Amino acid sequence: MAELKPVYDPIGQHHAIPGGLKQYEEMYKESIDPSTRDEFWRKQSAQFIDWIRPYDRVSTGGFAVGDHAWFVGGQLNVSACCLDRHLATKADKTAILWEADEPGQSKKLSYLEVFHGTCRVANALKLHGCRKGDFVTIYMPMMPDTAMAMLACTRIGCPHSVVFAGFTATSLKDRIVDSQSKWVCTADVGKRGSKTIKLKEITDAAVNDCPNVERVFVFKRTGEHGVPYHARDVHMDLVVPKMRPYCHAEAMGSEETMFTLYTSGSTGKPKGVAHSYAGYLLFAAMTTKYSFDLRDDDVFACVADVGWITGHSYIVYGPLCNGATTVMFESVPTYPDPGRYWQMVATHKISVFYTAPTAIRALMAYGDEPVKKHDRSSLRILGTVGEPINPEAWRWYFQVVGDSKCAIADTYWQTETGGHVMTPLPGVTPMKPGSCCLPFFGVEPKVLDAQSGQEVAWSKGQRADGVLALAKPWPSACRTVWGDHERYMATYLDCYKPYYFTGDGCTKDEDGYYWITGRVDDVLNTSGHRIGTAEVESALVAHPAVAQAATIGYPHDIKGQGICCYLELTKGITESPELLKELKGAVRSAIGPFATPDLLIPVAGLPKTRSGKIMRRILRKVAAAEEDQLGDVTTLADPSVVPLLIAKVKQAQ
Ligand code: WTA
């Protein structure tokens, strides 16, 4: 625990919580106390949601069987809450500010333009047969059309499944098949750091194996590549302008599925985490407002990708539901130089900036100069998400980027939680570098003993270490794993009944502040990307040269965690640099470039127990150069593999 003394936030009062910590504590209590909570959520939902039909009950069900439901009986339309309801007062306000890959090529779209664009896309989808309830897979780059495609789906009541445009054809195909999408939206190409990614080509490769896909809607990013078209393709640049700029907004039930997003877990293939309309939208909108103290004149820049949950909640739905100006950033932080973010802050007068610790650490390595040469006086709030932030990076972000004048929001949450579950509130919560501080409204964290599942006793002045569970459903707690509620129960709700299990380790400190210590399951968090060790291993063993593989995360200065794979090669195969390169390529093409292993280490034998289970604990310690803390190795079937392993890792590092 790096620092226990809180840093008081310099921004002054929180707009919506002017009474500071005391008011937060009152509101928090109101949000979870059974006698007041319905009223709390009733008031909040009235602020953010235009109900088409009022709901009958605020919440029902719970984590015991995973039947938790919010605003039951209500009907709404998410695109209408994000667009239509702002038109009377904000038609000309910039809704989406697009910063293209090449600096200087930004574009502003007003609320009216996004409304019209969304309606036209929705009408084009309908024209080609897409109907309420059909899944639409969206495999698109960071361009305004992508946000409009998502909003168009919500307009006509089609759940979307956005697949990050860095995934390969195989991963895309698996996700199309799992969600049974008949409709796919893509673009000709994507641009990132001057590179061109041939999205249409990848989509074709995926869709060729998906006989259920009826249409591929192709949006134009550059038009410069002569991509071959098929009968199933729809040229959106030709069709969309012909569509009417009004489309009826379907009345959707609060609990109908709004979207799925595939995410990695400990075992098996990625699962489609399902969120429903009302609870998700409310929580995305509320957290955007409170966690970032959002104001009407803010320029809000979340520089994540819409292909991840951060982009769903904090590029598209949260900011737009609040009527804010949201930035979509197409490029990478180091293109054309490591001052790109700050140049963008200066150009667009960005006031809220939200990124991942891995990007902060990568930029820190270039020193202060690329930051300081740009005017950052518009910045008020700096957010981080995706992994624990080390206090050194926190301080650099606070002192250098924010000139010690901005609040830092270290927001802890997950794809499954839909929005922030723990975060300091600017101007309200005294911050501690590296801690996600206190729970958001409606969220009840519990630190449990991993073995017994009992809550670890805590009182002021004491510390509690364990694993993190959340006690009661909050509005955007994911509802199920698409098509596999049993897996949902097994992964999240059956482990520490009757709580939701996050998969993260956690410490509650002397002041009651929470510190996330990282995943305790077989999920890696590398550069803020979640990757299941099982996914990497299955890509490796699919190669004939690999007999067995074990993947673990190890500390990495920039990425947080690096990916280290230990390999037992097939008999008769000898290791060579070419083979290792080929194996890295196998993982890249099975999952995507972001999953490329940092270290591939062929070993004579993996450390296994007598029953054949790989002892990952030993592999982790060796990769982290903590071989003095191996613990008990006497249960190994063959302890002599350990010194060989250590020698091999030293050589590889
Ligand atoms: C980690 C991203 C520490 C955590 C929104 C979680 C964090 C996983 C933080 C979810 C944070 C996210 N501090 N750890 N502020 N934010 N994590 O689903 O391990 O891509 O379980 O969602 O990221 O990753 P996911």
TrEMBL record:
Species whose genome carries this gene: Pelagomonas calceolata
Record's protein name: Acetyl-coenzyme A synthetase
Similarity comment: family membership: Belongs to the ATP-dependent AMP-binding enzyme family.
Record carries keyword Protein transport: no
One Pfam entry name: ACAS_N
Keywords from the named record: ATP-binding, Ligase, Nucleotide-binding
CDD domains from the UniProt entry: ACS
Catalytic activity: acetate + ATP + CoA = acetyl-CoA + AMP + diphosphate
InterPro entries with a match to the protein in the record: Ac_CoA_lig, ACAS_N, AMP-bd_C, AMP-bd_C_sf, AMP-dep_synth/lig_dom, ANL_N_sf
A Gene Ontology molecular function term of the record: AMP binding
Record SUPFAM superfamilies: Acetyl-CoA synthetase-like
Location of the AMP-binding enzyme C-terminal domain: 535-613
Domain Acetyl-coenzyme A synthetase N-terminal residue range list: 24-82
Ranges for domain AMP-dependent synthetase/ligase: 84-469
NCBIfam families listed in its UniProt record: Ac_CoA_lig_AcsA, PRK00174.1
Record keyword Nucleotide-binding present: yes
GO biological process, alphabetically ordered: acetyl-CoA biosynthetic process from acetate
PANTHER family: ACETYL-COENZYME A SYNTHETASE, ACETYL-COENZYME A SYNTHETASE 1
EC number annotated for this UniProt entry: 6.2.1.1
